[in-house]
User: Which sequence fits this backbone?
């Protein structure tokens, strides 16, 4: 099997093995790292979306508040100098207490606070001027303000959202709400993941790592620092850069911060100029790469040692092969002769089995037909007994002249039984009987008349849709009637136990095809059984109630006449059997 190994020296195999092992190690480490990074990126995107939705939910719940407060007439009055400060302060205090914000306050057109929810606290905003804040300037210009910074009064950071106060079409002041997002940051820190938010100047304002807060993603320009100082946005903070080294390994999505490497993903937060960052430590990727490196090296070494061992073993066995070659050929010839004999024996057994299968198929078909005839012949026998009993009664009463109808009925029933039992020959081989024109409507009328007493006894209404024309098909009347008998009897069985039983028979023709639909109001046919209805011995009835041959025989009869049959569930409940048979040309009318 490994004869080719003996043609190479140990040195050449070793060099080739080392080269292949090196390539395998490189491929394994690279592919493992790429797979790990893809997995981390998928996880990061999902986590980033979750963090963004959490942050937006925390902010959006307060966006409406300045607008709602600005619509209050007392607020407009206090800005105009006509309101009651005590009433306005208490109103703001109550609203702020309900909303859960840090503070809610109102400023006049100069930026001086004239009412505040924290009016009764030592560090309240009353009388303080915030006209230098960007959010005040934005709202005074008619826009909603959105600003994050450290409070000049409280020294606590927060998000400021503002809305202009208008009166008679003129902006007279600004209402603002301050949100402190400390609880959100604490939740982030408790999660153990690295996530932070930066503002438009790349200053980190919210983060799961407290030592990164008020650090910058990139060094700030002189213009940016001057603007931040004018706005007193981050008072007391040095705003040192975080020293992010992007693409340390040539990868676009990898960043190095200090001695740590992260796989990062960023998502802009709609409705603001903030960006949300999610950083995944690269330790997991390094561990996967190291594991792949060790496994590949060990595996390659084992493969190389195995190859060398097999080479030595192959060299030892090479000398033995020549001496054993002749013996192997002889053994092979003997085995081939044995296999040829076994195959001949198997072929003979197969021919015998095929003959038995043919005979078994005939017996199975006869068994199916016999069971169907036994199933259908019970009512004629019962009817003959009834007519015989009636004839006996007429004889006992001395009225033999009235026996004629009874005898005619008995004769007709026996002919009917003879016609039914005559089908055994048809199902034992391909029918050679002469087919004749059959009127579908007449055949249906015969079956309905035959089953009328049973339908009456079981409380079933059989409705025939009106059809004025004739549907003439080339078939055998007895077997066509058997098809209708089987389907109607199955419909009766399906509605067993129902309070309302109804069978509808509908005839139609189109494109040289006669269509017969027989539907019922039963529970319908479950999906698992629809594809098996016409298989021999398949039945949904309880054991002892049927052998599963009726629909199989029906299918065979319809197919012999060149037609098709299918079953389906109606939209308004119940099952429907649809039979299509080719019409005889020149005989169909409508």
Assistant:
């Amino acid at each position: 099997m490994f004869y080719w190994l003996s043609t190479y020296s140990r040195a050449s195999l070793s060099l080739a093995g080392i080269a292949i092992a090196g390539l395998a190690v490189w491929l394994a480490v690279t592919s493992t790292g790429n797979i790990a990074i893809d997995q981390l990126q998928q996880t990061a995107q999902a986590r980033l979306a979750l963090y963004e939705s959490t942050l937006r939910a925390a902010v959006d719940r307060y966006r409406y508040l300045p607008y709602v407060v600005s619509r209050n007439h007392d607020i407009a009055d206090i800005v105009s100098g006509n309101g009651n400060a005590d009433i306005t302060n208490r109103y703001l205090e109550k609203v702020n207490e309900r909303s859960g914000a840090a503070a809610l306050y109102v400023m006049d057109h100069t930026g001086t606070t004239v009412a505040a929810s924290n009016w009764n606290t030592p560090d309240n905003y009353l009388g303080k001027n915030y006209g230098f804040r960007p959010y005040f300037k934005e709202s005074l210009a008619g826009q909603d303000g959105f600003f994050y910074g450290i409070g000049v009064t409280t020294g606590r950071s927060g998000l400021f959202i503002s809305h202009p106060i208008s009166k008679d079409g003129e902006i007279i002041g600004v209402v603002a709400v301050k949100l402190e997002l400390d609880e959100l940051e604490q939740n982030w820190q408790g999660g153990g993941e690295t996530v932070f938010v930066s503002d438009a100047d790349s200053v980190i304002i919210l983060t799961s790592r407290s030592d990164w807060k008020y650090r910058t993603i990139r060094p700030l320009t002189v213009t940016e620092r001057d603007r931040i100082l004018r706005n007193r946005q981050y008072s007391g903070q040095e705003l040192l850069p975080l020293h992010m080294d992007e693409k340390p390994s040539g990868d676009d999505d990898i960043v190095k911060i200090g001695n740590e490497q992260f796989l990062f993903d960023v998502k802009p937060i709609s409705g603001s100029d903030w960006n949300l960052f999610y950083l995944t430590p690269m330790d997991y990727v390094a561990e996967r790469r190291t594991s792949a490196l060790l496994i590949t090296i060990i595996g390659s070494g084992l493969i190389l040692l195995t190859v060398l061992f097999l080479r030595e073993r192959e060299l030892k066995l090479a000398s033995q092969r020549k001496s054993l070659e002749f013996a192997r050929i002889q053994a092979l010839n003997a085995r081939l002769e044995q296999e040829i004999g076994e195959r001949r024996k198997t072929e003979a057994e197969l021919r015998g089995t095929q003959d038995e299968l043919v005979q078994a198929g005939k017996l199975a078909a006869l068994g199916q037909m016999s069971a169907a005839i036994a199933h259908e012949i019970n009512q004629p026998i019962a009817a003959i007994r009834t007519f015989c009993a009636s004839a006996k009664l007429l004889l006992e009463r001395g009225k033999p002249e009235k026996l004629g109808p009874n005898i005619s009925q008995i004769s007709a029933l026996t002919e009917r039984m003879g016609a039914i039992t005559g089908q055994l020959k048809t199902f034992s081989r391909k029918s050679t009987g002469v087919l004749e024109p059959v009127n579908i409507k007449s055949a249906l009328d015969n079956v309905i008349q035959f089953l009328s007493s049973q339908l009456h006894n079981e409380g079933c209404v059989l409705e025939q849709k009106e059809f004025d024309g004739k549907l003439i098909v080339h078939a055998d009347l007895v077997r066509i009637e058997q098809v209708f008998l089987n389907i109607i009897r199955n419909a009766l069985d399906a509605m067993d136990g129902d309070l309302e039983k109804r069978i509808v028979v509908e005839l139609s023709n189109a494109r040289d095809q006669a269509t017969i639909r027989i539907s019922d109001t039963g529970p319908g046919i479950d999906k698992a059984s629809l594809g098996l209805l016409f298989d021999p011995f398949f039945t949904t009835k309880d054991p002892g109630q049927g052998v599963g041959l009726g629909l199989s025989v029906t299918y065979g009869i319809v197919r012999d006449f060149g037609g098709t049959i299918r079953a389906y569930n109606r939209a308004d409940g119940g099952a429907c059997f649809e039979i299509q048979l080719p019409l005889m040309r020149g005989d169909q009318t409508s």
